[in-house]
């Protein structure tokens, strides 16, 4: 057929594209270059930390903040009862942050989630408290209403092409107003016992224990073991595909560390009231959405859209469809948060969920999401949310007043994003 | 000594872990046009950033002498104060401000009380526009101008700052031949007025046409400075300096054996998305397996519009016409359908439309065919890395790992990522829009080699290019496009730059 005559092949010449930056890589063959990557990329813990500074930075910050407040509160922060409290108090913000970080990755935002929490809680309360419907009807209705609101936003953003900021700003007013109308401007309470269990129920005593709940420990042990098995399988698969993996001791250290943290956490819970139901809900959501964003076509397309919208379109990504569904998803999660919040506050109030959107947005940004989109993780947003939670809780324990708390939270958000921008600039300068 | 305006001595600039420039010297004579050549990543832009104060004094080693005195620029304001003005490759104009406002941006003509004197602003702007040969109203917004005219506005802006040394980074990269010729003419006139000019360019034909001397930079070192006034410095001579050895041929040889027809469009018309005019007018063309077909046209002729409208109607509205793949009429109303039908389109602007620059090589390579790596919606991440590695090897993408961010790669390597991405969709026909724009000679040759390999595998390739020698070097057949109409189709044996240019400008002459 056709033949290419290798006359002068400039790619053999030393002059190259990337200058000295990858001079090392190009002098070697492709194989030895990837072998070098195997070493440089992952075995060296320092390289691991610096390479993922944005991500690891947030974990380090979290550990520092927990240690700081544990010291300032004489250990009360990490007491069994208080850990349980943190989970119960901030679960709905974390649920919202899951949906929010996905929107932020795609380059959108949702300012209305606080209003959706209020509206869904109100719908549920009206059905269950006023109309004596069973508890699960309230839950289903709340989630359905939330999903419908998400579809409403998705329609305007994806198919009409309006900026999400405007659409959800309108939604914030609109659905707050509807909440007032649904509730007729009064608070409703109390919910029946089953409904309250969503946010303040515990699974405990199922298999006994002496002064602690063995069931909680068992679930945590299963979770830790599941984690170990899953990362080990991932490692095996990576080795099978001849990809770099971290050195075995480092790998074991990581697994043991995670398992230890999980078990310590469970131990504390077991010594309080057992395994909160809401924690189970949250864990299921975090795992499901964490996997979804990383490992599914849909999740990856969200990143593609946020990274470069035009390139995503020209790569065959159905941008409108993806945008529509991530708003539907946000509504769905806001519905769940609405159920949790109404259950926790044991009723529905016209002002419920005020400013929740800002906490959720802050969690996503503290957790490393980029303002311009394309960057962020569900787990990062969870850590970002927990940083806020630990700070609020710690300051409450110390008796710091509300105004100071607000100042501190504001500064943390500011510094987190400043750090993000500083990092990017550094990355840009080293080009 | 006195006839040297600028001297840079022993410039060394280090980034963390990388020596971008090492002991670079540059001497520019008063009143000359001095070209700087080098492959992408050789350090040209870094050198100019050192010169213009973007990298402040102290962040590099070495001395800069301007007009016989040592200078230390702490920022771009310092360098502009002595008359060194840089015009970057990506134009820095504010689209919705007027031409006059852009010209005096940061340098506003103020009247009494610190308020802007609009009469003075617009009058001076008009004078400056005349001096660069641009007949536009200074109050009209910049967004209404084409790229070529915007470039002229940038030069007018530089002139407003009493420029003594004008630095142009790839001034003609985005311009068509007519606008480029215009710009080069202007540079000659500026030279006659005593303005010294440094020009970075990849287009060697321009350099041999206009430059008085040429400094070649390779891998952060000065290789040589050539005196061009004698006229016997050829393009081949410059390339030898750039790549460090002779380049017998720009274009790899290929024996053409076209097979059956792969893609054909008939009666294809496309309307502008907003304005009431046709951008493609009853076009018809075909391409066969194992064939490289070129589309030549001036900027605005509708080349990209034609390609994008074929590629899942991603441009324009009211698209009419018939699209055949392998002789059968197909529906490709969305990009996804076009990809399914075996069409791939690599855009002319890879940074804006082709790549997710903040993502890694792996995610970019898989982006257009992620479904192939997934079962029930779940992506096999290991398989994905394998595919990306494959692309890296096949295309010789120079990167440490496929997990490196695409934004950190050089232009040529980014283009190879784009090609890997489209090859992974396993297309029957590849439409390559300006596949070698802004990439260096060595990488160009690699891209041509890749194109040859693809047609050898039986793929059909359509190449859109502003550089006629490139089309003549790699195509089997060339269509010319003018004002949305196909004005000619020439087999490579009959095509010359002259007859192509005549066909490309045909419509205009008829109309004018």
TrEMBL record, chain A:
TM helices/strands, residue ranges: 58-80, 86-106, 111-129, 135-157, 164-183, 214-236, 248-267, 273-292, 322-341, 361-390
Location relative to the cell: Cell membrane
Domain of life of the organism encoding this protein: Bacteria
InterPro entries registered for this protein in UniProt: ABC_transp_permease
MF terms (GO), sorted A to Z: transmembrane transporter activity
Keyword Transport included in the entry's annotation: yes
Entry keywords, A to Z: Cell inner membrane, Cell membrane, Membrane, Sugar transport, Transmembrane, Transmembrane helix, Transport
Keyword Zinc: no
Region Disordered: start-end pairs: 1-24
Listed GO CC annotations: plasma membrane
Major place of residence: membrane
Membrane topology: Multi-pass membrane protein
CDD domains referenced in this protein's UniProt entry, alphabetically: TM_PBP1_transp_AraH_like (cd06579)
Function field: Part of the binding-protein-dependent transport system for D-xylose. Probably responsible for the translocation of the substrate across the membrane.
Name the record gives this protein: Xylose transport system permease protein XylH
Organism this protein belongs to: Kribbella antiqua
Automatic annotation (TrEMBL), chain B:
Superkingdom of source: Bacteria
Subcellular location: Cell membrane
Ranges of residues in domain ABC transporter: 6-244, 263-508
Keyword Repeat: yes
Keywords annotated in UniProt: ATP-binding, Cell membrane, Membrane, Nucleotide-binding, Repeat, Sugar transport, Translocase, Transport
Gene Ontology MF, one: ATP hydrolysis activity
Keyword Cell membrane (UniProt): yes
Cited SUPFAM superfamilies: P-loop containing nucleoside triphosphate hydrolases
Record's protein name: Putative multiple sugar transport system ATP-binding protein
GO CC aspect terms: plasma membrane
Entry membrane topology: Peripheral membrane protein
Chief place where the protein resides: membrane
A Pfam match: ABC_tran
